[in-house]
Write a structure and sequence with these properties.
- The structure is a single chain.
- The chain has 9 helices and 14 strands.
- By secondary structure, it is of the alpha/beta class.
- It has a single domain, classed as Ribonuclease Z/Hydroxyacylglutathione hydrolase-like (Metallo-beta-lactamase, Chain A, 4-Layer Sandwich), CATH 3.60.15.10.
- The strands form 2 sheets. Strands 7-8-9-10-11-12-13-14 form an 8-stranded mixed β-sheet. The chain has a 6-stranded mixed β-sheet with strand order 1-2-3-4-5-6.
- A hairpin with a 6-residue loop joins strand 1 and strand 2.
- The chain is globular.
- The structure holds zinc ion (ZN) (2 copies).
- The site of one zinc ion (ZN) has 5 residues, from loops.
Length: 264
Amino acid sequence: MDVNFKILGSSSAGNSSLLQVKGSKILIDAGLSARKLQSLLSEQGTSAEELDAVFLTHEHADHSAGIRGLSKFQQLPVFANQDTVQAVQSKLPRRPNWKIFETGKSFEFKEFMIHPFSVPHDAYDPVGFYFQWGKDDLFEPHGSLAWVTDLGFVPTLVRERIRKAKILVVESNYCPRMLEADIKRPWSLKQRIRSRHGHLSNQSTFDLLNSYTSPCWQKIFIMHLSKDCNDVDIVRNQFKELNGQGNRFQTFVIDPTTAEPHLV
Ligand SMILES: [Zn+2]
Ligand SMILES: [Zn+2]
C-alpha cells in the first residue's frame, strides 16, 4: 500500500509529521505556525487544504501552535481529547472543527484505526498514538505507526502499544551530561525535564529499544532531540549498538534544526 511518512518538524522548533496512506493525509501534531506548515506541506507536494485531519497529542505549544492558523480551515477536523481541546481552545480566537476522542478508546477515521493511549508527561491529558491501516492479506498488508514523544518514563501499556508498530516514532530528548552542563536552563526546569513527567533521555530510549526481542519495527525515527542539550552524532553513535543483533529495522535520527533524517 502507498504509505508516505515525513517528519516536518522536530523538537523546540515544533513537532509535526505528515502521514499519507492511500488518499488520506493527516498531520500528527501541529507545533509549527500554520504558515510554516503550509510551506513544508508544499515541499511535500500538498497543502493544508488537502489535509483530512490533524491529531494532537497534548497542548504544549511545540505540538499545537499551528492550530491557531489552521483553524481558518473550518472543515478540517482536529482530533484531541477533552482536556487538550480545552487547553488549546482557551488561547484561540476561533473554534476549529474539534473532534473529541477519549484517551484509551480506539476509533476509526478514513483508512485508519486509531488508538490513543496515555503517556506520563506534564500536560493535562497527554497521549501517544498507534495508527493502523490496511487488511491483513497479501495485497494489502497491515501497516502501523506508533507516535510516542513527550514522556518521562515508559509504562508497561506504552511498551505493549509500540511492540507491534512497523513504523516507530519515539523521542530521545536529552543527553544527561549536556543537560547537566547547560547554563541556559534553571535547575527547576532541568528537574522537570528529568522527572517522571518530563522527557526521555538518550539512555532511557536506548534501553527501551534494546529491551525487546524480535520487534516488528521496520523503521524507527528518533525525534524531539533538544537543540541545546543533545546532539545528532551522540545519538547516532549510541544507537548504532541496536544494529547487528539480528535486528532488521533501520533507525533514523531526526535533526532538531532541519528535521532531516540521519541514518544510524
Ligand atoms: Zn510536551
Ligand atoms: Zn514536546
